[in-house]
């Protein structure tokens, strides 16, 4: 069954887009995911669809981390249906464990400022490499995540899968914060799932 993945934060604000290089006042490095916060300061994170928790743990660079596999996810940018791994970084608390089945009403935990985060936020990565869910180019080496310089070709923009579910019971909304360094399509193409 094809699934349309929804935002992990109900009232989401994009604070940093995915770029190979970002040159804003705060970021001067490659950013292999997106950063989000809640517009209502509600830090609860929900699963984006039907998935399987592949890994959960603590990393010195990225803080508390989750990796979830979502099968048959609709990529709205390409129109393809693909299996994708979402990695959630900087979590304050985690309420699921490896092997857990999740759906869009499952509370995964809360985002925070663990690891080297300067402010509370969710850093979300998408990776088409479903065999190695802890391999990320966001770290060079670490104690939980596996740094990877080769194979960056499997990293995808999470925005290509995310939809805004604006009806009951979700009532989601989405906006861009100022100075995100986001691509224009990250701001305009999220539609109701």
Model description:
- With 193 residues, this protein is mostly beta strands.
- It is built from 1 helix and 13 strands; from the N terminus they run βββββββββββββα.
- The strands form 2 sheets. Strands 1, 2, 3, 4, 5, 6, 7, 8, 9, 12 and 13 form an 11-stranded mixed sheet that branches. Strands 10-11 form a two-stranded parallel sheet.
Describe the secondary structure blueprint for this structure.
Layout: E1 11-16, E2 34-38, E3 44-46, E4 51-59, E5 63-74, E6 81-94, E7 101-102, E8 107-111, E9 122-127, E10 135-136, E11 146-147, E12 155-156, E13 173-176, H1 184-188
Parallel strand pairs: 1-13, 10-11
Antiparallel strand pairs: 1-2, 2-9, 3-8, 4-5, 4-7, 5-6, 6-8, 6-9, 9-12
* Portion in strands: 35-45%
N/C terminus separation: 14 Å
Overall tally of structural domains: 1
Give the proportion of residues in helices: under 10%
CATH fold-level name: Glucose Permease (Domain IIA)
Superfamily (CATH H level) name? Glucose Permease (Domain IIA)
Task: Give the overall pLDDT as a whole number.
Answer: 85
- Tally of helical segments: 1
Taken in chain order, the helices and strands follow as EEEEEEEEEEEEEH
Quantity of strands, as a count: 13
Largest sheet geometry: 11 strands, mixed
Low-confidence runs of at least 5 consecutive residues: 21-25
Class inferred from helices and paired strands: mainly beta
